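Review session, final week

We close the course with one last complete record, chosen because it touches almost every idea we covered. It is 1-deoxy-D-xylulose 5-phosphate reductoisomerase, a protein from Campylobacter iguaniorum with 360 residues. Go through it on your own first, then we will talk.
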Amino acid sequence: MIILGSTGSIGKNACLLAGEHGIKINALACYKNYKELNEQIAKFNPKLVYIKDENLKKYINHKHVFTQIDGMVEFLKACKSEFEGDLLINSLVGFDGLEPSYHAQKLGFKLALANKESLVAGGKFLDTEAINPIDSEHFGLKFLLKSSPKIKKLIITASGGAFYNLSQKELKTATPQMALKHPNWDMGAKITIDSATMANKLFEVLEAYYLYSTKSIDACIERTSSIHALIDFVDGSSTAHLSKTDMKLAIAHAIGLGEKEILENVNLLELKSIKFRPINLNKYRIFALKDEVLKNPDLGVIINAANDETVYKFLEGKAGFLDISENIFKALDKFGSSSIKSIEDVFEINQKVREFCKGI
């Protein structure tokens, strides 16, 4: 298989599973963590590697290194010419993941997707039926949908993030250090902030729409993160997916290890008290956009770009926590009537929204 984003949490877990189950890794790609990449090269001996930062190429212990000068698409084309029929894991962070997702499918790779932005911004231009989702919620939904009766509603769960117990007044002075303390998951900075604002859950609703072709999707708070997804069926029955909070399970199914023992089962006798609560739309303003986004999924590219720019401003201390949602609504007011008819339109609107948010 090929792993894009190999030095991140998903990528490292994918490498771990590959090593344990004898799966050949033919290519690795990362942003700038050259030390971790070199360790992976030494262990898995990939044929091709990619590091985005051209200045770091000289540190990579490999003969065939691509960078952003060559381009990710050229890297994927080289992979295609070297090895046919590979599974490609895309766990890149942010909007940069859309282009490789789009071209990976065009080139015939089987796509295992952990990059939310590919679907949020460009889902209408991807073959969503051919995607193996790597997200605990969407894996849970896919698992529950095996040989299932007709769906009434899909439900995904949210932990509530680091600020669930904070008041609206306290959020005004929330710091990046506070926001990065997720109660259940060990994730990167960007997605941890998205969890605190509930932007992450809005994106997952839109992902579920593209993956499972229904607009009957909702989310609720489940603080332990033991239950990742639920489904109501039209016959009146409901079902839930439970597992430990470990992304190796979703990754394993995405790469064809669904029949292997990956994790220990949840001990039901030791399970914490589980309660489901509604999402407070006054506190989590971004999630209040759910119904509007499901009516017009093209808004995803605008929301993603505005969120992306402002989250990084927040992490750099250049914006307040509440500015994240505020800038999303400002961007929607300005660009919400934009028409997206091609993949090129996605990239154009993405750039315009980012420039607008940089100027706020």
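Two points worth writing down before the exam:
The radius of gyration is 20 Å.
The longest helix spans residues 299-315.
Good luck, everyone.
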